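Figure 2 data, in text form.
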Amino acid sequence: MYREVRLFALGFVVALVVAGFVLFQLIYFEEMASSAQLTRKTTGALTTKGIETNVTEANASLKGVVYGWNNISLKNAAVFVFKFAYDNFTGNFTEIAETLTNENGSYFFGQAFSTGAYMLVVYYEGLQTEYFFPFIVQGSPLQVNFTLMEKPLLYGVVSDARSQRRVGWVRVDVYDSYGTTLLKSMLTDRIGTFRIYAIDGIRPNSLLKLKFYKRGFLATEKVVAYKGSYQNEFVWLTPPFLYGTVVSKNWVPLRGALIMVLKFAYSNFTGELRKVDEARADEFGYYFINKTHSAGAYRIMASHSMLMSDYYNQVVDADHIYVINFTLGEYPLFMGIVRHSRNQTGLTNVTVTLRDARTDAPVKEYLKLTDLQGTFKIYPEDEVPDGTYKVSLAKDGYTQTRYSLDKNITLRRGAYGFATFYLDRVG
């Protein structure tokens, strides 16, 4: 028993040593990429790799100019070249060269860099460190210019609260603590980061109200207490429960279209329908239902003046986000429903033929026009002349009832017709 305890203790110590070594390696490589490490390296002479003194712009394999945020070239900015272990910018990276910019802010590297993935790092005391990730092909000269900004007072990251992914191109409005005076308006970059600088007029020990806007997410506010030194802020945007677009058949956004959310009494889309929410489409045709509703069967309906309403039935899980887009068309001249004569269910894939009421000649034929609910529609663009018509229905295994055979319909521009037709099951 004592021997087993000693072996266990020894194994535990070895595991701690290995874990400590791995952690040290991770911290080391992280520090190499940080401005803190670069600050240490540039306080004295650059002796790690040496500076090439005989390189000119003409024979440089890698060159560029380093500017400050006010477009003034920076002398003695430190430029570092790191190479990744793999060509897809992964693995450990190793420093292979470094230099300082001259009095014109220019830097030059004369050595022939082998083909691969690289990271360029530029450091200048008091300004924000910048990075660039080129893929260098040996023998192909490369020029990369840098503009170093002031170090931000506040650095923020905007992410999706559900997926945890960063959200790019979010509008950020910075207000005073009362939310009345707009101090700055900007967009996050493609990876969801934003920065606030001293030149933005932000004073230490002040409260800021940040407002975030992005289509497809709820508007979000965050109050930040700026303490007078560099600080990070993390912002989470919540996507709406349901959103989408409402457009016409020619893709024109339908501003003001009404979206209604109706809930069925039962989860099989039966029972009484009860309205639980509504929204209006904005000038771009987008609508948002922000409130999360309980699980169940819903009907989402869109309507707009002078256009035909449309709806979708949707089973809803409260933990999901739903996107439903609507395309509203003109009211049809006529809409018919083809039903089974006994159980009244709609019949799909029924061939509908219009015939002249006097001559019985075919006028317009539709192949398998009826949808899953058994409906068919005749629109003005179908170019059916105004007049009175018979409706012939054909479906394998069915025959048209006498009642339907004797029914005529009238098409007239500006009017809306409706009728129900029945088929009998053969046999």
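Caption note: The radius of gyration is 35 Å.
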